[in-house]
Design a protein that fits this description.
159 residues; mainly beta; five-stranded antiparallel beta sheet; 10 strands
């Protein structure tokens, strides 16, 4: 993932995960790399935890998919409380529930993180296009998903 300023991100309404002009540039989160018929999941997808036996307290919890961990055969998920967890595909279901701003670890992000109004819609799970980078111009135009706000860096983490 990259840490980017709000000024270098614009909300993208393009279909995930990448433009058709670059078929080889998608991350290794494809239907062939992910077992268990879980091709519905992709970074930025809103999910609900289900069917856990060892941690039933997590069932019903909501989060945003971050990435597939091939070594662990699990999805990394950023939960609404800000914690990171890993789940097998069978323990996740895609849901349309909105991100609960009250449950976010950084509820004041909108007023302090986004000095320019055009980036006011940034929040975990939103698809974005990188723009205006000078030190890494090769990233301009790339699509990604917002993961979280890093207050210490004053930047958004984007995958």
């Amino acid at each position: 993932g990259k840490m980017l300023k709000a000024a270098n991100l614009e909300v993208s309404h393009a279909a995930a995960p990448s433009p058709s002009s670059a078929p080889g540039s998608t991350p290794a989160v494809s239907s062939t790399a992910v077992p268990g018929g879980s091709a519905d999941f992709q970074p930025g997808a809103r999910v609900r935890v289900k069917g856990l036996q060892a941690r039933p307290d997590l069932n019903g919890g909501l989060g945003v998919v971050v990435e597939w961990d091939e070594a662990e055969a699990r999805w990394k998920v950023r939960m609404d409380d800000g914690s990171g967890k890993m789940f097998r595909p069978v323990n996740l279901e895609v849901c349309d529930a909105p991100v609960d701003a009250a449950a976010q670890a950084t509820p004041a992000v909108s007023s302090t993180a986004n000095p320019n109004g055009s980036a006011g819609a940034l929040e975990p799970g939103v698809r974005v296009r990188v723009k205006g980078l000078q030190a890494r111009p090769e990233l301009n135009g790339c699509l990604g998903s917002v993961v979280e706000w890093d207050a210490a860096e004053g930047r958004w983490k984007v995958l």
